[in-house]
Amino acid sequence: PWSRELCGGTHVEHSSQIGAVLVTGESSVGSGVRRIEALVGLEAMRRSARDKALLAALADVVSAPVDETLERVTALAQRVRTLEREVAQARSASVLATAQSLADAARDIGGTSVVAAQVPDGVGGDDLRSLALDVRARLGDAAATLVVLGGAAGGRALLVAATNDPARKAGVRAGAVIKALAPTVGGGGGGRDDVAQGGGSDAAGLPAALAAVPGLLP
Q1: CB 149 within 8 A of CB 160
Q2: Per residue in 161-202, pLDDT tens?
Q3: Looking at residue 10, what DSSP letter applies?
Q4: Are the C-beta atoms of residues 166 and 213 closer than 8 Å to each other?
Q5: pLDDT tens digits for range 203-214
């Protein structure tokens, strides 16, 4: 399809030479000056016919009369957003429900309770962080605790580390742990001494990264 830039001048002998005009866009080209772009003549009619066909096809997909299509699509889009929120909430609840089993699986390595585990794929960074903090809280402060969790989401590897006060006093710092592990998954990261996170592009490196956690203890 071709288009013409319309301006204030006259470029035709009479309006019948233009025929149909279908405005396709407008923009600012300067102070007080607007540019209108349009298809004219046969191309305008072709575009109009195509748009009508697309609208009819969409109406058929959503099982609604053409004049009710916008309302139906708007309702469906709202429903999708609601379902997405519900799925995210359910996923978050499911992830956090594993906190106790992870805490129960802690290993004592040289006097430090260590949890190094990979969670199911699809768990986002915020949920992974919340889970790590929950596991740390369940283990308490009676002994030094290091929690390192890994997962894959959106095609990337994610890592989160959390330490309690006794662990930090013993020289175990979350930021340093993540900084040491992140290259194994092809990335980087860091953070505070109590909680840190990072990630990389190589999710296949997660098992090796988590296996290296005990070797990072002082």
Answers
A1: yes
A2: 999 999 999 999 999 999 999 999 999 998 999 999 999 999
A3: -
A4: no
A5: 999 999 999 999
